[in-house]
Amino acid sequence: MSDSRWPRGVYGTGEEPDYRFSFANERTFLAWIRTALALLASGVAVDAVDLGLPGVLETVLALLLIGLGLLCAVLSWVRWASCERAMRNQQPLPSFAVGLVLVAGVVVAAVVVLVLKV
């Protein structure tokens, strides 16, 4: 039986996992997409609302948040595909150390706002 679903790099390998695991993987993907949208909205808000920070710092903070949103969106797809592929091949799920970059970026943004606003 030929599987015509896309991406073939995911669906063209291994065996079909229990659909509940695939649905859970999709829900996790959507949670990451929501996080990406929140980061993008935060970046736009920092740029649109005067926080009383120096202009260059507000621009850098907005770009940081927008960049994190972009990274989060891309990583959500990579993570979904790698987990789905691992489930189909009955392998352990991959680690997600790149999430530390997202955490560090959000912490830096929060510290900048807290330190300069207080």
TrEMBL record:
<keyword id="KW-0812">Transmembrane</keyword>
<dbReference type="InterPro" id="IPR003807">
    <property type="entry name" value="DUF202"/>
</dbReference>
<feature type="transmembrane region" description="Helical">
    <location>
        <begin position="93"/>
        <end position="116"/>
    </location>
</feature>
<feature type="transmembrane region" description="Helical">
    <location>
        <begin position="61"/>
        <end position="81"/>
    </location>
</feature>
<dbReference type="GO" id="GO:0005886">
    <property type="term" value="C:plasma membrane"/>
</dbReference>
<keyword id="KW-1003">Cell membrane</keyword>
<feature type="domain" description="DUF202">
    <location>
        <begin position="20"/>
        <end position="85"/>
    </location>
</feature>
<dbReference type="InterPro" id="IPR052053">
    <property type="entry name" value="IM_YidH-like"/>
</dbReference>
<keyword id="KW-0472">Membrane</keyword>
<feature type="transmembrane region" description="Helical">
    <location>
        <begin position="29"/>
        <end position="49"/>
    </location>
</feature>
<protein>
    <recommendedName>
        <fullName>DUF202 domain-containing protein</fullName>
    </recommendedName>
</protein>
<keyword id="KW-1133">Transmembrane helix</keyword>
<dbReference type="Pfam" id="PF02656">
    <property type="entry name" value="DUF202"/>
</dbReference>
